[in-house]
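Researcher: Good morning. I'm working through a list of sequences from a screen, and I'd like to move beyond sequence-only analysis. For each chain I'm collecting a predicted structure so we can compare shapes side by side. This is the next one on the list. No need for commentary yet; just the structure.
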Amino acid sequence: MEKLLSEMNRYFPLSEQTMAALRKICQPKSFKKNELILRAGDYAKYYYFVNTGLLGYYKLDTAGNIIYKLFFEENSFCASTVAIIEEKPSNFNIVALEDVLLMQYSARIFRGLVVQHHDLALFQIAYLEKNWVVKKEPLEITLKWESAKERYLELYNNQSLFKRLKQHHIASYLGVTPTQLSRIRKELKQ
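Model: Good morning. C-alpha cells for this chain:
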C-alpha cells in the first residue's frame, strides 16, 4: 500500500485524509504467471497498481494473434481505462507475464473519491497528463513513422523491461513475426 501512495504522491501530494480513504478501498491481489486479470469482453471494474511483477496489455487480431500494446512494470498503474470511462466491455486483456502482486481498487469507488478529495483529483489530472498525453503522443508517432527496427532499438534501450520479455512478446509488440524479429536482431548483431 505504501508503494502505491508513494507513487501517487510523486504526481501530487495527498493529504492524510485522502490517503486514509485510499487505504480503505485498496486490497492486495496476487496472480500467477499467464493468469488473466481482465478478459476482453468483460467490464473493467478495477484499477491496478503493480507492486511486483510484469503485466501485458493486449488484444487479439482477427486471426487470433496476440498484439501487445503496453507492458506495465513495478510502480505502474494499469487498467482498461477507456472501458471504465465509457462503462463498456474492455477491448483489451490484461495478463500476468510474471507472478504479480497488485493493489486493486474499485474504479467506481475511486472515481467517487476523486469528486470528494480535491488533491486526488489533482493527482488524477497530473497522472493523465503525463501518461496519456506526454507519453502517448510519442508512442503514436513511433507506431506511425518508425520502422520495426527503430522501435526495437527503443524497446532495447529500456533494459529493465527488455530483459523480462520473451521474444514472442517483443515481436507482437513490434507488429512483426518472430522470423522478422530474428532478422532485425541479426542485422543489429544482438
